[in-house]
Amino acid sequence: MKRTGFLLAAVLVVTVAFALSAAAKTTRRVVDVLIIGGTTSGTTAAVAAARQGVTTLVVESTPMLGGMFTAQGVPAVDGNANLPSGLWNEFREALRAHYGGAPALATGWVSNTLFEPHVADSIFKAMAAAEPALSVEYGFRPVKVFRRGRKVTGARFVDKAGNRLEVSAEVTVDATDLGDALPLSGTPYRLGMDSRSLTGESLAPEKARNIVQDLTVTAILKDYGPGTDRTIPRPEDYDPAEFSGCNATAVGDPIPSEMVITYGRLPNGKYMINWPTKGNDIYLNVVELPYERREAALRPAREKTLRFIYYIQTELGYRNLGIAADEFDTPDGLAYLPYHREGRRAEGVVMLTFDDVMARYDRPAPLYRTGISVGDYPVDHHHKCRPDVPGIAFLPVPSFCVPAGVMIPARTDNLIVSDKAISVSNLINGSTRVQPVVMLTGQAAGTLAALAVKAGCTPREVPVRRLQAALLAQKAYLQPLYDVKPDDPDFGLLQRIASTGILRMTGEPYQWANRSWFYPERTVSVGEFTLGLHDYAPQIAVEDDPAPLTAASAADLLRRAGGRIAPSADTTPLTRREAARMVDEALHPFERDIDFEGNLK
Predict the structure, then answer these.
(1) How far apart are CA 312 and CA 220, in angstroms?
(2) What 8-state DSSP symbol labels residue 549?
């Protein structure tokens, strides 16, 4: 009887599998640009590409667009409050319009821009729907990337029902959260902590280590009103000692328990639960696990967040806070996906390091000249769940730009990389991984993809300055100028000149919003001017001359540098803005192309 039952069960399994296989279908699409992942960067890449007039398809595994901001439940913006660049600014303005102004978003103390995930999702979907050339497929994950020689030609996706989607594309963008298209396409990458010998960073470990940052499955709680009890069932293996000390700062100083909650307070009485100190961070390295095994491997992260919620409700006394029912359609009500702080990082034509950010003008390669997105967040690494890893506690940096070459794999063509998988060191990933930077890198990736399609070339063959000019036309920053906003009539001019280095920025690590100043209304000395001009025209000697630069002395130096400009007798000191205008008119230095290392061609 037992054997008969076993055979019946086996027949049933085979029959069901055959039925599913028979019911599954294959859909084929041909587009100009394929975006793998509707993540934070994938969404902006898709919108940017479609706005350039090329047919674009974004394929996303969850029901939401926006990645960290939406499906991963991290609707608290890290950085770029004073860098209103491109699609990041467009998104923020849409949030302000929805909630009734900037003050309505400053609800929690961790950020001045917080919002509900479903609202961000609706904004991103509206942006996508407004583009006739853009379409979105939900519920599919990548299983194969097609490659012919060096060139990626598209990808295959499957959904939970076994349906297949096969897409042929001129250019593909890997916008997945973990860089999943890299191994699928045979593109080399790095994972974990880089060695000091590889990056040259004194703060990197002596030897590489296969350790990634802690991840978090976030929750959105909602205040259901005084006197209500929304306590969840006591989770299995719950022990309040696990979270004892959560109401303390990173260095152990006590704080009011309320700060654990108000940290991520959102509009409409909601709260983001993404607490690093004895909270719901967890160490799990699932990056290289097959997709089919990830869900089970990530279960401990979901369980830890549920235990932390129970602790908040019972030990901290917030029984009126329950899991919001209108955010994530998951069995436990938590975010669809974990908040991964890092994954694979492509081996690009260049690699951005911490030292490149700290000393942009004193590096072997002037990568800053190739900037395509900007950020101002400190280096933030989460390793509290791994005591054997030395802490990296918010290393201050000046605001920075992300160079174009980090998006382009060294040995794969027609594949562009965005999100957290760009070619950066593990150390500086702590700054480049945050949401606004990733959004802007995605915008650059989509723009680059479209330019390559329209030119009929590979992405690496698109001139850097052409990409930068296209981004400037979108009011996107190339350089992180704190004191020159997009409404400045000289915004494009000053971005161009700052990108040549002829007039240099002054970097300043500053609290949570690091800065780089152009000082457009300051005067400039002859010595300072010759320092930047020498890099463009080596025949100009660097002078130690503190005298203010005038129209007369500037014209003389620009003529000697090969510029077309009439001599001047005006000895009035020039502002940096005026000097920039003279440089632009005489030399047109931004029109001289550069390679991916920033070297002049």
Answers:
(1) 13
(2) P
